[in-house]
Design goal:
heterodimer, A: 325 residues, alpha/beta, Rossmann fold, 2 domains, eight-stranded mixed sheet, 10 helices, 12 strands, B: 300 residues, mainly alpha, MetI-like fold, two-stranded antiparallel sheet, 11 helices, 68% helix
Chain lengths: 325, 300
């Protein structure tokens, strides 16, 4: 277990393991990860599909459904371990203190309810508000996320909104109770590039306005370089490297992080790629799970799992090349 | 609600559905206003038995008190009884209107009960899944295989026959189809992202069920309800026909039963309630079908 400067952390995850017990075996979707989120910072969790990013996010809100289960770990938030409190108390935290935005805005809104009703619902789930008051605040929120003509749009259905506008509605819903932590699970993946930039701007602005802490999950290093204060790189359900943005992006140490950045910045004609594919999470390789694809794997990588090595303040890497014991 | 207006626009284009709706509205108006312009449906008058509808005649022997014997006379229909009278001289129009009231009451209330039970069981079953799903669905299977008419007969035999009891009995046995339909719809809905999104924002189970799941299954529930009203009406008619209906009220089933003996002479006594049943069932079916078509996505 690594010790970061946990005193300032608003949300602190340690040793989290979330497994899915399927008929074909146990899928270790999240396998012993730890990270801290501080007040007002944006933490980007980066990784390819199937690396456990979304499961991590859902675990934070305890939204893992059978056959999945959080096996072990600690999620400290406002001096409570979220994994110890009863589910009824968890429900009061969801949306209220920690809110989440999902990947696909097209399917994240209920098609038969107007967006006004849905935002109001999110608002009144945790707060006692008169109907007129809730409506006024909802319209205020719509204005905040820059939806034009909020009074009229309030009464419209999701199908009357474009993808970018729907994602703004989702952001408005997440902000309805002014949570201190916002989890965004690839919120721009389903949108086209220009809209994506607008939504990113919105996130930056919200962070400034509410000094909100944001966990931003993405596979897009371009987004990361623009948005992140700190980065955690995930692979196969584990964190490979984490640290401040510039440390990780300018001085990537883990062979996997390097590979990822090479894919992005390759100057040669041929696009660089990491050889091999992401491992089957049921049948994980022994030792470091990245070793079958690692260009600098050593003998020890095949048998033992690397621990964290502190490179600089807050820059950690899980690799035997840098110690890792 | 704009959505309702949209579906109404689409339903309006279905001609049979509109014809069905017109007939049902007509029936409801008759059933409600009937008591104000007809004679009592239970008023017996043996002097006026088996009067045919206007335009028809019937040759029958009637007891003549002054001569002390039977005389054969030709009965002519009069406008005093526009649909004729039955073997006890009761006005057919009045009885049919009373029957309409019974049928609509049974159809709407029994279906209402069945739909509410079925929807709740179906949604609960699918939403919570696991053991809850198994228990509720096995219970549904058992209810489904149980011979429903036999159960009704048993209930009526045990507790006596009243309209309330019949409505309850039909409602409490008729929910299985709804439960299955709603369950299958909910199964696909619950994996939709907006349910997860709603949970992530702190919605409780009750809130998700009544705020997200129910409204999304409502269109199928409405269609199914409309299509199961005829079943309930026919079930009541069947019970009344075999003499297990509420003897206090004139319903189409027991009029039909009373008329079947004199089918060769006073044919209208059986034919008229038969026609009413036929058209009412048809009207509800047309409406249900039309709504199903209108609610189906991509029909434009």
């Amino acid at each position: 277990m690594d010790s970061e400067n946990g005193d300032k952390a608003i949300l602190s995850v340690s040793g989290l393991r979330t497994y899915f017990f399927t008929k074909n075996g146990t899928v270790k979707a999240v396998d012993d990860i730890s990270f801290d989120l501080r007040k007002g910072e944006i933490l980007c969790i980066v990784g390819e599909s199937g690396s456990g990013k979304t499961v991590t996010a859902l675990s934070l809100l305890r939204l893992i459904e059978p056959p999945g289960r959080i096996v072990e770990g600690k999620i400290m938030f406002e001096e409570k371990n979220l994994l110890d409190i009863p589910i009824s108390e968890m429900q009061k935290i969801r949306g209220n203190r920690i809110a989440m935005i999902f990947q696909d805005p097209h399917s994240s809104l209920n098609p038969v309810l107007t967006i006004g009703e849905q935002i109001t619902e999110a608002m009144t789930a945790h707060r006692n508000l008169a109907k007129s008051e809730a409506k006024a605040q909802t319209i205020e929120l719509l204005r905040l996320v820059e939806i034009p003509e909020p009074e009229r749009r309030f009464h419209e259905y999701p199908h009357q909104f474009s993808g970018g506008m729907k994602q703004r509605v989702m952001v408005a819903m997440a902000l309805a109770c002014e949570p201190s932590v916002l989890i965004a699970d690839e919120p721009t993946t389903a949108l086209d590039l220009t809209i994506q930039a607008q939504i990113l701007d919105l996130f930056m602005e919200l962070r400034k306005k509410f000094s909100m802490s944001i966990i931003y999950i993405t596979h897009d290093l371009g987004v990361v370089s623009e948005l992140a204060d700190r980065i955690a790189v995930m692979y196969g359900g584990r964190i490979m490297e984490k640290g401040r943005r510039d440390d990780v992006l300018k001085n990537p140490l883990h062979p996997y992080t390097r590979g990822l950045i090479d894919c992005l910045l390759s100057e040669s004609e041929k696009l660089a790629s990491i050889p091999g594919t992401i491992p089957n999470l049921i049948d994980l390789p022994e030792g470091c799970i990245f070793h079958p694809r690692c260009i600098s794997a050593m003998d020890i990588c095949r048998t033992e799992r690397p621990g964290s090595s502190k490179i600089e303040t807050e820059h950690y890497v899980y690799c035997f090349r840098y110690g890792g014991r | 609600m704009r959505l309702a207006a949209y579906y109404w626009e689409r339903t309006k284009r279905q001609r049979p559905a509109m014809a069905g709706l017109a007939f049902i509205i007509f029936l409801i108006i008759l059933a409600v206003s009937g008591p104000f312009f007809t004679v009592s449906p239970t008023q017996v008058n043996f002097d006026e038995k088996n009067i045919p509808p206007p335009g028809f005649t019937l040759e029958q022997s009637i007891y003549n008190a002054s001569s002390g014997g039977f005389v054969t006379t030709v009965q002519r229909g009069t406008w005093e009884h526009p649909l004729g009278t039955d073997g006890m001289g009761r006005d057919m129009l009045a009885m049919l209107i009373s029957g309409a009231r019974v049928s609509l009451l049974v159809g709407l209330l029994a279906t209402g009960i069945a739909i509410i039970i079925g929807a709740l069981i179906g949604i609960t079953s699918a939403y919570f899944g696991g053991a809850m799903d198994s228990v509720l669905m096995r219970a549904t299977d058992i209810f489904m295989t149980f011979p429903f008419l036999l159960l009704l007969i048993l209930i009526v035999y045990l507790f006596g026959s009243s309209l309330t009891l019949i409505i309850m009995a039909i409602g409490l046995t008729g929910w299985t189809g709804t439960a299955r339909l709603v369950r299958s719809e909910t199964l696909s809905l619950r994996t939709r992202e907006f349910i997860m999104a709603s949970k992530a924002l702190g919605a409780s189970h009750l809130r998700i069920i009544f705020y997200h799941l129910l409204p999304n299954t409502l269109s199928s529930i409405i269609v199914l309800a409309t299509l199961s009203i005829p079943g309930a009406i026919l079930a009541e008619a069947a019970l009344s026909f075999i003499g297990l209906g509420d003897p206090q009220v004139a319903s189409w089933g027991n009029i039909l039963n009373a008329g079947q003996g004199s089918l060769q002479t006073a044919w209208w006594v059986a034919v008229e309630p038969g026609m009413m049943l036929f058209f009412t069932v048809l009207a509800f079916n047309f409406m249900g079908e039309g709504m199903r078509e209108a609610f189906e996505p991509g029909g434009d």
